[in-house]
Structures are given as C-alpha cells and as structure tokens.
Design a protein that fits this description.
The protein has 138 residues and is mainly α. It has a single domain, classed as Orthogonal Bundle (Arc Repressor Mutant, subunit A). Helices cover 50% and strands 9% of the residues. It has helices spanning 13-22, 26-36, 45-52, 58-68, 93-101, 104-114, 129-137, and strands at residues 43-44, 72-76, 82-86. A three-stranded antiparallel sheet has the order 1-3-2. The longest helix has 11 residues, at 26-36. It is globular, with a radius of gyration of 16 Å.
C-alpha cells in the first residue's frame, strides 16, 4: 500500500506579506535567515559573510540596509570589533523567527517565489509560483 502525503507549508500569508513589503535583497534575506536562527548571538562581519557564502562587496551594503530597516543592530566592543545581532523590534522579530524556522528547501523556495526575475537590484517582490518556476525552467 502506498500512501501519498503532502508537506504542510510553514509560510503563512502574514509572513509572505511582510517579506513582500520589506524590499529586501536575496542577500539580506539570507542574512536574516542566518541571524534569526541564532537570535541571541552576535556575529562579526566575516562570520556573516561565511555563513551566507559570499565575499561579495555588496555584503556591507546589505548589512547596512538591514541596520537602516531596524532588523539588525551593530555594536562595537572595547577592542573595536563590530558585531551584528537581531534587533527584535516588535514589528519584524516574529517574522524573522518564522523565517528562521523554515527548513532550507522551503526557505529557498520562498526566496525564489519572492525574487523579481532579471531585476537590477535583485529586489524581493511577490510572484506567482508559475513565474518563479518558469524562470528556473528557462
């Protein structure tokens, strides 16, 4: 006997709406997902770069954008090392936790659904599944 089951999606309408309206880049999405999985930790810039798998010069811009959106905070210690951690303002903290709880494949699928294909700044916007799937099939 073969039983078919469908995995329940953890992506709520509120989560989708929040990330659609924030205007994050895919790099910022990855940074939030990483930091959200470790909400009480503080990370150096190099640790974040390694965690999201990039040495891109745009990483600094992505981190600064998240600071400006009050999603992460920067703190300098007595030795001059700047560390970054989750800001946890009430409007975004719960959504970042929800994002962090997604498994890798679901998070990447969610990110792909939000990405605007061919956009110059790689901004996140809402897309239908068909648009995201067609982009990958081309």
């Amino acid at each position: 006997m073969v039983t078919m089951c469908q995995e329940k999606s953890m992506i709520t309408n509120d989560l989708q709406s929040f990330f659609t309206n924030t205007g994050l880049s895919s790099m910022q999405f990855d940074i939030l997902r990483f930091i959200g999985r470790h909400p009480r930790a503080r990370f150096s810039f190099f640790t974040i770069a390694r965690a999201v798998g990039t040495g891109s010069p745009n990483l600094g811009e992505a981190v600064m954008g998240l600071i400006q959106k009050d999603m992460i905070i920067a703190q300098m210690d007595d030795n001059g090392l700047t560390t970054y951690s989750l800001s946890c303002n009430r409007s975004s903290c719960g959504y970042i936790y929800e994002l962090a709880e997604l498994d890798w494949s679901e998070a990447m699928s969610f990110r792909d659904q939000l990405l605007q294909p061919g956009g110059p700044e790689d901004r996140l916007i809402g897309l239908s599944c068909n648009s995201a799937c067609n982009r990958h099939m081309a």
